[in-house]
Amino acid sequence: MYVIFHLFAWTILTEQANPLRRANQIIPVIVGGPQDTFIPNTVTAAVGDIIQFQFSNGNHTVTQSTADTACTPMEGGIHSGHIPFQDGQTDVGTFNMPVTSADPMFLYCATGPHCQEGQVMMVNPANAQQLADYVKLSQQSQSSTDGTDVVGGTAGKLALDTAA
User: Fold this and answer.
1) How many angstroms separate the CA atoms of 39 and 30, rounded?
2) What residue spans define the domains of the chain?
3) Which of 38, 108, 130, 152 yields a CA-CA distance of 20 to 30 A from 139?
4) Which residue from 74, 92, 72, 88 is spatially nearest to 31, judged by alpha carbons?
5) pLDDT tens track for 15-69
6) pTM for this entry
7) Total Cβ atoms within 10 A of residue 103
8) Distance between CA 28 and CA 94 in Å, rounded?
């Protein structure tokens, strides 16, 4: 009887300490398109989710900066490398980035003037003003600096008909 009660009490404590959590998600983000953008340009993601960047129309990157250095790669930050897309392709280049922190993350495209033209986004913004400030800062920067090595994710491909 003691063992059964002890097991029952342990089960209740465990359920209270570890409430049901949602399953990790794959969150698609389109990079490029008819205009040089990220769609969507804000994402709320939990640790363990994977943001799947799907590259469209042209040549783009996903590169991480800090809040106050838009268009400049953050040391040790995320960088996808350049992933091109040409008309007629049957697959889409992807960059799967695992979310490892719930802190705000600032991302931009390092190709040409894309960052200055507003191709920026945020993961887990604290508020809407934070994204607006980052967009403004990117538009004021003189040039984009490219990342070097691919860091913080895995490049791959996805069939065009299954892309977002």
Assistant:
1) 5
2) 24-162
3) 152
4) 92
5) 445 556 678 999 999 999 778 999 999 999 999 999 999 999 889 999 999 999 9
6) 0.84
7) 10
8) 10
**HSE of 143, CA atoms in CB hemisphere, 13 A:** 3
Strands 42-43 and 120-123: parallel
Between the alpha carbon of residue 157 and those of residues 38, 71, 100, 163, the distances in Å are 18, 26, 22, 10
How high is the pLDDT of residue 46? 96
Tell me the C-alpha distance between 51 and 164, whole Å.
Answer: 12
Residues contacting residue 140 through CB under 8 Å, at least 6 positions apart: 70
Before 34, cis peptide (omega within 30)?
no
pLDDT of amino acid 88: 83
Per-position DSSP letters for the chain, written without gaps between them = -HHHHHHHHHHHHHHHHS---PPP-EEEEEEETTTTEEESSEE---TT-EEEEEE-SEEE--EEE-TTSTTSPPTT--B---EEE-TT-SEEEEEEEE---SS-EEEE--STTTTTTT-EEEES-SSHHHHHHHHHHHHH-S------S-BSSEEEEEEGGG--
